From TrEMBL:
Leader sequence residues: none
GO BP, sorted A to Z: regulation of DNA-templated transcription
Biased composition (Polar residues): 1-10
Region (Disordered): 1-21
Protein name in the entry: PPH
Lineage, highest ranks first: Bacteria, Pseudomonadati, Myxococcota, Myxococcia, Myxococcales
């Protein structure tokens, strides 16, 4: 009896496990502006210099800022300078230099209206040579007493 063909054996193998985030990452650049705005989390696209290319409405509401005013501005210098630290900006730069990035980490955004504890997922897009920043809300706490 002949051994089963490789293609038959591969076709019977279970598909690799993916998460909803993995599926989104494969499709993000094909989403329209209204589809990006409908996402239940913040999503920002940055070019190689950190300039904001896309900024969804969910993140604008959570951050309490005007989205249109952010487009074209530098995320790290003008919009969220608290992110210009090794834990955030360093990952961004490293991902660009390697042209490969898919990391999730905790971060605290510091606003006048409170501190926002978030989960950040940063991923590099080879197709557009850009970095997408996915921001998942975890909580908002009042700023510390001064």
């Amino acid at each position: 009896m002949a051994p089963p063909s490789t293609s038959l054996a591969l076709s019977n193998a279970p598909p690799p496990k993916t998460t909803p985030t993995d599926d989104l990452l494969r499709q993000v650049e094909t989403l329209s502006a209204s589809e990006l705005d409908a996402l239940p989390f913040g999503l920002i696209q940055l070019d190689r210099t950190g300039r904001i290319l896309k900024f969804n409405q969910t993140e604008a509401k959570l951050a309490r800022i005007n989205r249109e005013r952010q487009l074209g501005r530098n995320f790290f210098d003008d919009v969220a300078p608290c992110t210009k630290v090794r834990e955030f900006y360093g990952r961004f730069l490293n991902g660009l230099s390697q042209r490969s990035l898919y990391e999730t980490f905790g971060f605290i955004f510091k606003f006048d209206h409170g501190w926002r504890n978030v989960a950040i997922t940063m991923f590099y897009s080879e197709k557009t040579d850009s970095v997408w920043v996915l921001i998942s809300q975890t909580s908002v706490t009042p700023p510390p007493a001064r």
